[in-house]
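Thread title: Can someone regenerate the structure for this chain?

I was given the following input by a collaborator and told the matching structure tokens would be attached. They weren't. Posting the sequence so someone can regenerate them.
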Amino acid sequence: MEITYVTGNSYKIELAQRILGPLGVKVNQKKIYCPEIQDDDIVNVSKYSAKYAANELKIPVIKNDSGLIIECLKGFPGPYTSYIEDTITEDGILKLMQGMENRKAYFTEVISYCEPGKEPISFVSNTYGTISAEPRGEYGWSFDKIFIPQNQTKTLAEFEDDERWKFWADDAYLKLKDYLAKNVIY
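Best answer:
Regenerated them for you:
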């Protein structure tokens, strides 16, 4: 079986292939424009894009969406993370959090699988941590400079690429693997 991961991120392809490969799934990569709806639920954003991509390409696809959830900001920026990255950046988030003791946060990643003409199925991973008091590190991008993974003292941006990726939860990929094994690959 072949699935196309609609992304420009080669790490995501490597991760998906490592997890899905033992099922006999070949993961291809394709980057296409997918409209991103504005919705307060990251799952809905991911599903919409996956359905669009599957119908556009006429093949089974994986599409993901993610967001940073900050507890003291009542879940902000959530599904608007990309927009916040481009506008107020991590410095704006830190200003919003000035004086706040609760620094708990997590990244939610939603992986949606969709076949042409069908409804998407979504799987969720959460990577827990805290928000630092100031940006630190030279690797990664944007929120990597303020996100400290659970049980760590350094931000993601203080770890090189080969190290940084080990902190991301891969539950969504494992749930996708189970779904494919039970429902698609017989």
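The mean pLDDT is 95.
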